[in-house]
Amino acid sequence: MAAELYPTKKLVPSAASSLTSTSSTSAVQNQNHTNNNSSQGCNWQGVYPTIRERNSVMFNNEVMADVHFVVGPPGGTQRVPGHKYVLAVGSSVFHAMFYGELAEDQEEIRIPDVEPPSFLAMLKYIYCDEIDLCADTVLATLYAAKKYMVPHLARACVSFLETSLSARNACVLLSQSCLFEEPDLTQRCWEVIDAQAELALRSEGFQDIDAQTLETILRRETLNAKEMVVFEAALSWAEAECQRRDLEPGIENKRLVLGKAIYLIRIPAMLLDDFANGAAQSGVLTPNETNDLFLWFTAAKKPELLFCTQARQGLAPQRCHRFQSCAYRSNQWRYRGRCDSIQFAVDRRVFIAGFGLYGSSGGSAEYSAKMELKRQGTPVGHRVTKYFSDGSSSTFPVRFEFPVQIEPDTFYTASVVLDGNELSYFGQEGMTEVQCGKVTFQFQCSSDSTNGTGVQGGQIPELIFYA
User: Fold this and answer.
1) Which residues make Cβ contacts (< 8 Å) with residue 51, sequence separation at least 6?
2) CA distance 465 to 467
3) Whole-model pTM?
4) How far apart are CA 165 and CA 189, in angstroms?
5) What is the predicted pLDDT for the residue at 336?
6) Strand partners, 308
7) What Cα–Cα distance (Å) separates residue 281 from each residue in 272, 338, 438?
């Protein structure tokens, strides 16, 4: 009874598996063997000069253990020794369990809702003052830290999750951050999902979210995604949900598990071609819905629909302009396959959507552009595309297929190789630091630049980004 003083919550199944492993838990799992061997001597206490080191010897150690935990679900349990005094000093929940008014003298306590590696990671922090986290178990460790009220470990778990946050796991972490009541992590998840919506919706992690999180995402006004991508993602989720419910993943069951969430997809805001060749032929819509939607796209008198008819607003892109002026001179700026490049760093996470580039100073012209983003020499984004310039000194946006996540306090290299009219505008009076809203950009010259672009002048006048 004392073991149930703190309310429990269940993790979403397979949520932790959506993260990529970054380290091994074998050291935690094998620590008990080391500790047992370490404490066999007559004066093992004299080997360790500090109380922290002597306390660490007792981690996962049967010596002097006065309580045992049977951790894990049936069929996957592990028996873990503990020392009431140490545990009570590290956790108010353990203190209440062992020394509170309702304390019971239990020699064995069952904890079926916590995974053994995560429970051991929490005990390692309590005994050894060491935080040992890995991507495979950090969500479960956060759950254990929350359940037993170990706040410093919980904050370390949240920090770890924020660092490893990407479009691939943002949807899963969103559902977990709401469950754990971590508003800062929730906000970080939304930043990633909004800016990299199409990547997030196409990730395997999206299929693992619960129905409530699905509806929350489908309602999102600021998703940067084509509505056809939203529709396809919802069908992929529905297929996975059918499997979770042991239903045949047919059209009728997909519609069944989606329920009213189908009306959160803004089908009337699709392109007509996307609707006609995709949603209309998916079989998920009823004949009446398909007919009414075709009338919505084509008829002057439009029918009433249960679907939202307005397109999502998406995120408004911001532009970091690094030059104070631009100019052109005859034969001044030529390309001929050479690379224009600049390095930059930011003080908070942003998402680079593309570059603003100068065009021809001699009238309208078309350019082909090979654009690239690198982090420490490793490409993180690239695209080959074309753009038109109208002969003005304006900048012309050239975008990556998907926005690229940029981490703070790390220099990235932005590069472009242009082929087109060689007489173009170029920037002057470049700045080493530019403030754009809440984001500070720093610029420095790049060794990749072989066409004259640098901090003071040249090409790549703008970085287009979401923050």
Assistant:
1) none
2) 7
3) 0.81
4) 7
5) 79
6) none
7) 13, 48, 45
pLDDT (tens digit per residue) in 115-130 = 999 999 999 999 999 9
Whole-number Å distance between alpha carbons of 175 and 20: 18
Order across the sheet with 108-111: list the strands.
78-82, 67-71, 108-111
**Residue 110 carries which side chain, given as an amino acid letter?**
R
Residue 107 has pLDDT above 90, yes or no: no
pLDDT (tens digit per residue) in 312-323: 999 999 999 999
Question: Which residues face 369 on adjacent strands?
Answer: 385, 418
For tokens 């993602």, what's the residue? Answer: 233
**SS3 label, residue 140:** helix
Flag the least confident range among 53-57, 189-193, 233-237. 53-57
Long-range CB contacts (within 8 A, 24+) of 328-332: 328/361, 328/393, 328/423, 328/424, 328/425, 328/426, 330/423, 331/423, 332/423, 332/426
Could you tell me the pLDDT band of residue 139, with boundaries at 50, 70 and 90?
Answer: very high
Distance CA 38, CA 48 (A): 11
Closest CA to 111 of 223, 211, 8, 210: 8
Three-class DSSP category at 182 = coil
The number of C-alpha atoms within 13 Å of 354 and in the hemisphere containing its C-beta is 18
